[in-house]
Amino acid sequence: MSTPTYLLEINWAGAAWTDESQYMLLDASGSYGLVSPFTSLGDLGHAPVAEMTVRMKNTNGRYSVSKAASQAATNGIYQKKIRFSAGYSGGANSVMFIGRIQDVKEDDITGLATLECKGYDHDIQQQRPSTEAYGDGGDAGGVLRTDQILSQLCTKIGFSGTSLERGYCLIPWWYGDEDDCLAEMKEVAESEAGVAWVDPQTGTLNYWRSDYWVGAGTAGYLTRSNIENLEPVYDYANTFDIVTCHYQPRRKGRSVIVYQLTTPIIVAPGGTVVEEIKLRYPVGEYLSYTANARTGGGVSLNSNLTVTIVTQNAKSWKVQFVNTNSVHAMVIDKFDITGRPIEGLPERKYTKDMANLTIQRRSDVRATVERARYSIQTLAQARLIADLKAFRLEDPPQAITFSMPADPTLNVGDVVTVNFAAAISTINDHFVLLDRAWAYRETFEDTWFAVRLSDLYAYTTISAGTGGGYFEAGVSVLGYGRLYY
Fold first, then answer.
1. What does the pLDDT look like over 137-157, one tens digit per residue?
2. CB 3.0 to 4.6 Å from 252: which of 232, 284, 311, 471, for a disulfide?
3. What is the pTM of this model?
4. What class has domain 127-210?
5. What are the backbone dihedrals phi and psi of residue 60, each rounded to the nearest 5 degrees, phi first?
């Protein structure tokens, strides 16, 4: 009979991983997913960051920064990389979690330490990047697809592990302005009903388009022999007949002054000053600047002023001012920047009415006063989002929660076939695994939240003479159905 096996590693320094398994108690657990259990499919892609908690023997103070010469004191422990792998005897271990240690809870009485860890999505969440403006005639280049924007954000924050499907939609104007980077990525993905998430088993940022599961193969076959405590779930509270998606077209506006100096800048003789400036509007195209420099007595020093734009983002610049005069201090009392700002047109909306419920209920995908929905700018985006969400929300989707002996080879996003015959109801269908909670204690257990695949898409296999549904390569007859909304 196979027994569970595990390997716990910490990267204390450099590239080497240190095996910490001998210090680990049989008490590790974690969770991650694409949607929080029991929440609406309308929130797909907005789950919390991945987490893991593991209890360690700490009688020698190995994980205590206050213990002289300990690993934690020597190398630090906060933000150290940690990796937990598990499997069964006779086979290889599979990575269940890779991330960083965020906190250590020490108990001097029991000699235990609890390591609280978060996935690499937490790394992204802590970043607040600013970027150039991307759009038609923008300073940074042309219009970008969804996946290209995600790639730009990863480059800005130095996150290299990505697997990005090619997006369908172009976002006419986009820029980053010190927002929560993870939230920004999720909103960009949602602009074409896709999902962006970091897989804690690989540490990779994935972008999946809205059609990711169309035609997906099954990764497992689950029956009563390996499923425990299966519970059908119907989300009646989030059933809607009308879905409205708000969007705001954006364009490059007329030439205006986007920045004016309010406090004079003083530069010592032969000196340099670097200023961080915040522009009034996001600038799609920079045109020119005007400056005036003088001595304290009013004598012009314009010929001694050198201006260098160090960093040119859509909403913020870093500018270097150099005084080449070796005798007089320089007073810069004027520095105006002229450009063409990105401006929003009046808000518009697209509504999908399924005309299905006796009492109509409404759900809005709404733009906010912040930039949370900034990426939704076109009717095509709004129609895609509203049509897809309306299908998913018009009837409560068939969802299930179940526990089972953990299978480390399964992952969130996999499609599994569930064949479960019970006294009350029988389930025999394909399900998408959307949320996972695992625990390695006396036993190695998985608890899953899954949604029936057919409830994600208005999808049918098509044969000659049959309309509706989607075209499935290798199965359907060309000329019938559709692949996309």
1. 766 678 999 999 999 999 999
2. 284
3. 0.88
4. alpha beta
5. -95, 5
Q: What residues contact residue 101 under an 8 Å CB cut-off, 6+ apart?
A: 10, 77, 78, 79, 80, 82, 115, 116, 117
Domain at 212-237+396-485, CATH homologous superfamily: Bacteriophage T4, Gp27, baseplate hub, domain 3 (2.40.30.150)
Q: Which residues fall within 8 angstroms of residue 429, CB to CB, at 6 or more apart?
A: 398, 417, 418, 452, 453, 454
- Torsion of Cα atoms, 361 then 366 then 369 then 371, to 10°: 150
Q: Which of 438, 372, 31 is nearest to 187 (CA)?
A: 372
Q: Which of 136-145, 177-186, 379-388 has the lowest mean pLDDT?
A: 136-145
> Which among 85, 93, 407 has a CA at the least distance from the CA of 225?
407
Return d(Cα 146, Cα 199) in angstroms, integer.
19
Position 374, amino acid: Y
Whole-number pLDDT of residue 140? 65
CA dist 12 and 23 (Å) reads 15
- Only one residue has tokens 């705001």, namely 248
Helices (H) and strands (E) in the chain, counts: 5, 31
The SS3 call for residue 455 is: helix
Q: Which of 133, 127, 122, 130 is nearest to 180 (CA)?
A: 127
Q: How far apart are CA 363 and CA 252, in angstroms?
A: 31
Predicted confidence (pLDDT) at residue 175 exceeds the cutoff of 50: yes
Judged by DSSP in three states, 180 sits in: coil
CB 390 within 8 A of CB 455: no
Residue 338 to residue 327: CA distance in whole angstroms: 32
**423 backbone dihedrals φ, ψ, rounded to 5°:** -65, -35
What's the pLDDT tens digit per position in 252-269?
A: 999 999 999 999 999 999
Is the domain spanning 4-119 CATH 1.25.40? The answer is no
Per the rule left: phi > 0, alpha: psi between -120 and 50, beta: everything else, 21 is alpha
Residues in the chain: 485
Q: What is the DSSP string of 231-260?
A: EEEE-GGG--SEEEEEE--EEE---EEEEE
Give, in degrees to the nearest 5, the angle at Cα 179 between 174 and 184: 60
- 252-344 has which CATH code? 2.60.40
Residue 65 carries which side chain, given as an amino acid letter? Answer: V
